[in-house]
Amino acid sequence: MNVLHFTWEFPPFKVGGIASHVEDLTRAQAKVGLTPIIVTCSFCGQEGYEEKEGVHIFRFNADDIPAEDFPSWVLEMNLLMQNQVIKIFDKFDKIEILHSHDWLSATSAISIKHMYRIPLIATMHSMEIGRRGAIRQDRERLIDDIERRLVYESWRTIVCSHFMKNSICSCFYTPDNKVDIIPNGIYPEKYELNFNYESIKMKFAMPFERIVLFVGRLVWEKGADLLIGAAPQILSKIPEAKFVFVGKGYMRNKCMEIANSMGIKDKVYFSGYLNDDELIALYNIAEVVAVPSRYEPFGIVALEAMAAKTPVLVSSAGGLSEVADGCAYKVGVEKSDEIADGILDIMTKKELKTDMIENGFLKINTIYNWNVIASTTKKTYQRVIEEYQHANWKPKIKNK
Fold first, then answer.
1. Packing angle between helix 276-285 and helix 300-307, nearest 10 degrees?
2. What is the pLDDT of residues 155-199, one digit of tens each?
């Protein structure tokens, strides 16, 4: 079965979690008998074709797209993506499923769906109304409209949690029986890394310091400022704590200002993006990983921490509560005092820490296993193809 994935980001180009999700999903799909094909944009002259572990990757150059803002750029990029897909159809005997990831590749996927009359499946990784808290501006309304259209045009929609399913159904009036819950996953073996502990740690903290780690974009919904707000209370009990923030975003300066105003700027470090090996090493070095999100459809960072056998604290926002159930320390949303209490508990109570590590590692090896997830996704594809074959909706343009 040939499956064409539409995604704006794919390694080595990474912005959020979609790149890693599509990479890991398609790698697992190739192992369960599917032929995954990816169309994605590239930068710095990396366009072209490559085949890796049974996954076919087609990249087109997106360096010089003229646009006054990001949504305009996305719409222009989708026109190039659509043109690239037409070329892909010349290389494969038949494309049986189209699979679009979020609004960023939606317009090209919808166009190809109607051009070739091939069933479209969408994975909604998040929603604009959740990321922003509300739809207020024209830019946000445009993105919300594209998301709504993508869900409407899709034969089935895949989401990663019950929280996301409820959000899609209530906000877009989508029938409950059109949405499948298939979680994200992780490869635990990737987090078993040999590295020089002392030299890596020295990049982020002094040898005696105990790292509290945040990984994610520095944006409102991820709640980095809430962790900084909890830092003074933690430092009053554990002065050797060091708060390391991995990621970039528009709230970086704001977070630095908060740390400076609290007099703790020397205990807070912003690393920017890290390569995979450095990030995995840091997950292993950290004493606790904090995920204090205000909005979180799933929470892949929590799984990454569990894979590194590092205890994790999460807020009860969205899908995080489902992911972390029984294997993480849960606190309320926007509760810096609860974040502080939870991190202090984890760092001072050895038995609690041990239980969290054991339960988390068991969970990622059973529920959040990519081979299981790929097989479940394949069943969704098969269901759609069977329904399509009995539907009065067949190609007008030749799809070999």
1. 70
2. 999 999 899 999 999 999 999 999 999 999 998 888 988 889 999
pTM check: above 0.70? yes
Residues 94, 116, single domain; the answer is yes
Do residues 277 and 252 share a domain?
A: yes
Is residue 100 situated within a structural domain?
yes
Which domain range does residue 107 map to?
2-185+369-389
Residue 394 lies in a domain: no
- Do 232 and 319 share a domain, yes or no? yes
Which three-class secondary structure string do you get for the chain? CEEEEECCCECCECCCCHHHHHHHHHHHHHHCCCEEEEEEEECCCCCEEEEECCEEEEEEECCCCCCCCHHHHHHHHHHHHHHHHHHHCCCCCCCCEEEEECHHHHHHHHHHHHHHCCCEEEECCCCHHHHHCCCCCHHHHHHHHHHHHHHHHCCEEEECCHHHHHHHHHHHCCCHHHEEECCCCECHHHHCCCCCHHHHHCCCCCCCCEEEEEECCCCHHHCHHHHHHHHHHHHHHCCCEEEEEEECCCCHHHHHHHHHHCCCHHHEEEEECCCHHHHHHHHHHCCEEEECCCCCCCCHHHHHHHHCCCCEEEECCCCHHHHCCCCCEEECCCCHHHHHHHHHHHHHCHHHHHHHHHHHHHHHHHCCEHHHHHHHHHHHHHHHHHHHHCCCCCCCCCCC
pLDDT at residue 176 in the model: 94
Residues 35-74 pLDDT 10s: 999 999 988 767 799 999 999 999 999 888 888 899 999 9
Confidence of residue 398 (pLDDT cuts 50, 70, 90): low
